[in-house]
């Protein structure tokens, strides 16, 4: 009888531990989707894939790190046809398209920088689930990167990357899989 109780306790503890590990690993898992998305701010011609990052110029950590990783992706690609269109969307209400473009191009000359006016940004925020909050110069956002693929009927959201699971290697694998 004592061995059965020990076994039950051990199994219960093991299941509890697996549940805790799973819960804490969720933020590190990229989300895979295949959802049609109206991304009218993207070029309608050209690249078949796009990486969209919503951030702001005054960000001290996530935004520059993400754009640096995207730059490293471009530097590591030997085949330019695999390069996605990279779009930095400046979410700062006090910014403009010229500042967004200048900031994006600091990381790579081919990056596109856009600023979406506040009324449009609210709609885009709902579509992408951005959860942006701005009070004066203080901005909070999730720092996710979105992989989109051009389909016959428009853009499709393929994957969402959390900042903690974002790497050049992961992006290379995803882009290779999409293009083959």
Structure description:
The strands form 2 sheets. The chain has a 6-stranded mixed beta sheet. Strands 5-6 form a two-stranded antiparallel sheet. It has helices at residues 2-25, 62-76, 97-105, 118-128, 168-179, and strands at residues 31-37, 49-55, 85-90, 112-115, 133-135, 138-140, 145-151, 154-161. The model has no long low-confidence stretch (mean pLDDT 80). α2 (62-76) crosses α5. β3 (85-90), α3 and β4 form a beta-alpha-beta unit. By secondary structure, the protein is α/β, with parallel strands linked by helices. The protein is built from 5 helices and 8 strands. It is globular. The longest helix is centred in the first third of the chain and has 24 residues, at 2-25. The chain has one domain (30-179): 3-Layer(aba) Sandwich (Glutaredoxin), CATH 3.40.30. The termini are far apart.
Task: Kindly summarize this structure in a few lines.
By secondary structure, this protein is of the alpha/beta class. It contains five helices and eight strands, in the order αββαβαβαββββα.
- Termini separation comes to 58 Å
* Uncertain residue ranges: none
Rg over CA atoms: 20 Å
Number of strands: 8
How many structural domains are formed by the residues?
1
Helix content: 25-40%
Give the overall form: globular
The run of helices and strands is HEEHEHEHEEEEH
Number of helices: 5
Strands of the widest sheet, in order across it, are 1-8-7-2-3-4
CATH superfamily: Glutaredoxin
Q: Specify the structural class.
A: alpha/beta
Mean of pLDDT: 80
- Under the CATH scheme, which architecture would be assigned? 3-Layer(aba) Sandwich
